[in-house]
Design brief:
The protein has 185 residues and is an all-beta fold. The chain contains one helix and 15 strands; from the N terminus they run ββββββββαβββββββ.
Length: 185
């Protein structure tokens, strides 16, 4: 058991017998009353966000957490398979855990996976991923107005707006935050 003053952003703590990832912490004091810690955290089982107050007299339980860089291998009916590059251990992430991040998963690319008590609980995407363009209309010669864009379908099925010079077969970088074109790879 630890003190609430040990709560930091990025740590995993048990709250109502469920692991929660701390996303924001604010230490507060109120006049003559005892201080407290205002904690915003995300439930690692459901993904729901919670905001709670922890008094300085309470005790907090932290979970052992580590991040491993694993390589995305393939997807099947069971979920998404990630392989450790050195030991070749297979880690399976469920569809619920991956959710909307699926469109940014490129085979043979490394991703950070958070483990709590040796169990995978979350997938962290990098700021940008490199993907291959599978379908893209040809740009029309003479169409040189600034910032003209066209849709391009990528290897994961994601469609993004790209400049006219991007062709099928090109590799581009895409932002994982808002699914926008960042440049050629």
């Amino acid at each position: 058991m630890a003190s609430p003053t040990d709560i930091r952003k990025g740590r995993v703590m048990m709250y109502q017998n469920v692991p929660h990832l701390v996303t924001d912490v604010q230490h507060r004091t109120q006049g003559r009353q005892a201080g407290f810690v205002q904690v915003t955290m995300r439930n690692l089982n459901t993904g729901a966000s919670t905001n709670t107050k922890v008094r300085t007299t309470d005790s907090v339980e932290f979970c052992f957490m580590e991040r491993k860089k694993l390589e995305f291998s393939y997807q099947d009916g069971d979920g998404f398979h990630f392989i450790h590059p050195e030991t070749f251990d297979d880690t399976l992430l469920s569809r619920d855990m991956v959710e909307d991040k699926e469109r940014f998963l490129v085979e043979n690319t490394s991703y950070d996976i958070m483990f709590v008590n040796e169990k995978p609980v979350d997938l962290d995407l990098p700021a940008a991923v490199e993907m291959k363009v599978t379908e893209s209309a040809e740009g029309i010669r003479g169409d040189t107005a600034s910032n003209v864009q066209k849709p391009a379908k990528l290897e994961t099925g994601l469609t993004v707006q790209v400049p006219l010079f991007v062709k099928s077969g090109d590799r581009i970088r895409v932002s994982t935050e808002n699914a926008t074109y960042l440049g050629k790879a």
